[in-house]
Write a structure and sequence with these properties.
This protein has 241 residues and is an all-beta fold. 0% of the residues lie in helices and 61% in strands. Strand 6 and strand 7 form a beta hairpin.
Length: 241
Amino acid sequence: SYFSRQLDLEAGIKRIANEKRTYTLGLGLRTAKTRDVFGEDKYTLLTLPLTAEFDYRDNRLSATSGYYLKANVLPFLALSGSDNGIRSFVDARGYKTFGSARPVTFALRGQFGSVYGPDLAEAPADYLFYSGGGGTVRGQEYQSLGVPVGAETIGGRSFLGLSAEVRVGVTDSIGIVGFADAGYIGEEEFYDGSGTWHSGAGLGLRYNTSIGPIRLDVAVPTSGPDTGNNLQVYIGIGQSF
């Protein structure tokens, strides 16, 4: 949906409060040349990236209990080519397991994104949000959902993602997973329901190894503009979230 050449320079401080909590503060300079449905744009931004991460999972690759929360806030001052604004993104995950012989783990994930300040045409194209693919909505093509502008598509200023999994241990080495994902992209700065939702669902197989579970997921779209597409296959190490 867009083309970008960019240069980023950034320095910062990371504060490791303990093994569960980490904070970062930085100062950056980004300059880029982009091309999208609105034409070509050159911009230079002074950025102040802020991050807080809380990781209280019992296992980072295959959590069965606890929670994870990461929040990014990126205020940016436009030196040229854009407007001042703030890009924010939050990723929250929670886990609960029942039983021991054949444990069943319920995993939930919520994602929220926003670009506040510049309107859609003036916002940096690589700061906008898309939905679809392994990190958001499985079954939908990668970054297939954005904001339609004529016959083209651009990213949105608001994003909401929801995912749920039921993970069942069949043996010590093999597990099966049922999952459903949903994603929302809107032109507005914060979610107000005026944008577009899409969703996907599927089944997965897990094979536990010493470095984490090997993941195989097969998913199909269940709602949205691209429900006629074929199924999607995802392979990786570790749980999907």
